[in-house]
Each structure stands twice: as structure tokens, then as C-alpha cells.
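pinned: reference chain
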Amino acid sequence: MPTDNGVPLPRLSRRNAMLLAGMATSFAGRPAHAASILRVAYIPILAMAQLFIIIGEGWAAQAGLDLQLTRFSSGPAMVQALASRAYDVAYIGIGPAMVARGAGLDLRVVAANGIDQGSLIGVGAFAAAFEAAASPAEAFAAFRQKNGRPVRVATLPKGSVPDTVLQYWLNEVAHVASADVQVLGVGEDRVQQVLLAGSAEAASALEPILTIVRERVPSARILVGGGEMFPDQPGAVLAMREATIHASPEAARSLVELHVRATRLILSDPGRAAHDTNQILGPGLVSEETLIRAFGSPAMRPISDPHAIVAATARLGVYQVRLGTLAREIPAAELFDTALYDALPPATR
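pinned: its C-alpha cells
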């Protein structure tokens, strides 16, 4: 149970072939044995839905996996905990994953969760003025001139994907003057609260926050989609420690296989995916109806193929270095380990 707290890589290698050969046995045909324990750190947002579905469908137990979950409020907070080597697996944003790797942690991205997941949502008079303005920069400037203060934009802490994407859009795409915007870096749970309380005019956020805010605040609207903020925006990923991949290859392979299976379920049966997800996010906190709408949102583009985010991740890393949130650019071959995914039979991807 949860607790609080540019170049595509080669697709097949000798190691991949060996992994593929070992995947002939189906789940049903595997012999009984003690469950393999994997300590999993995660953030309770819809971008991590594959994990929630794996748990909710009971697939982990069927595959002989004991997933021990620990919840974190943001990726940067998780990176600090990962430094203790207390976790084997992380459902984490690609930005913090790069920070962890750059800090010397043996973390490798083995699968993607989705792309273009973070969007800019606005509320109140600013949202209306944004749509009427000649440009985003003019909307921000007009707000400051009228109200005597900058537009407050909530997002996750510095170094997270939503924060990095927001900074990229503000500075490189919209060219918003720094005096016209105040970025509020808060925990995932606080982004929603800040918007609903009227303590911010906008937020760079993920689902289900985008859907919840639009349901509760009539003036709320998506101002800029994820792909507009940062083309092919990489987001959440499934990452594992190299030590775990080497020490428990069967468990690592099984989890990637289940992750891909969960992605297919999101695309084919959002209602079922919403039910599973609700059990982890908390029944009563978010309705299944809301989650179903969130799964249908343009901000939910679930994928599993890690190759699909390699090029955009490199661009994001370059920008993180410019922001000072990443010490150095992380080569794709150092950050990604696609062998587990590439070893899956093509029909199951």
C-alpha cells in the first residue's frame, strides 16, 4: 500500500536478443516462487497511471512481484530520497530523472509514460484576457499594468518537468518579460489548491488537476497545450536502478511488460483505467467520472516506447543546464536503457 512521505538508440542488441529469448514463458506458465520485492517511489498524478493500473488489476501479484509503494509530492523531493538507494524503481518525471543521473545515481529510464502531458491553465479575468490579447506576452504585460503585480503561475518545484516546460515557454516561445510573471513552485497537491483558492492566475500542471480545476472553476480554460509549450514534451517515465536491472532481471522485465500492458488498457478502456487509478489516488478525493474525463483529455497521451522521447529529452536537458537545474547534459546512452522494452515481442508493445 502507498505511504506518504537527439538520436534514437539502437533497438536490438545481443543483450536484447537474450532477453527476448527468455520471454517465451507466459505469466500463467511461470512456476510458483516467492514474490520479488521492488521498492517503488512515485508521485500521485495521472501521468503515473500505468503504475496504478498494474496494482489495481492485480497484475503485479500474478507476475510474482511485490511492489512496495512510497508516495512523494514532487520529482525533486523524490531525487533526494533516491540518493539513499532505498528504492529500486521510480515513476518520476524525466527532468528529475536527469538530475538524479547527473548526480551520480544509477538510474536508467526503461519506458515512457506519455508525451505533451503538461499544459498551461488559466482562471478568472486573466484567462479571458489571455484569449483576447494579441500575444501571450501582451496578456501578461496588460495584467501587471492593470493590477500592479505580475501574473502568478503555480507549478511544481524548480527542476520538475512542469516547471522546466513553463520556463521554456515563457522565455523561448512567448517571450514574456520576467517582471510580468511570478512563478510559484509548490508541491503537486498544492498546485490545485492554489488555483482553486484564487492565489494564482494560472498553472503549468498535469492531469487530473487540469480537469478538476475546469470542473470547479467556470472561468478556467486551457491557455496553451503541452505540445505548444514544448514540442513532443517528454514527461513521466518508468526508471530503474542499474543495480536492480542486473540483480533482478526477471522482475525488471516483468514490470516493463506490465507497464506496456497498462498503457494499452488506458487507450482501450479508460473507464477501467479510471477505476484502478481511483483506488490509489484515493476514493472520494477524485470521482471516477472526473478521472474518465481526464483520461480523455488532450493532455493525456499515454505511450510506453522510450525511443519516442529520446530526442525531446535531449532538448529538455540542454535547457535544464541553461536554467542551472542540471549540472551537465546527460547523453541518451547514459540515461536510457531500452533493452527491456526492445526485448518485448512486437505484438505486445
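why pinned: The domain at 14-115+234-348 is CATH 3.40.190.10 (D-Maltodextrin-Binding Protein; domain 2). The first strand starts at residue 36 and ends at 42.
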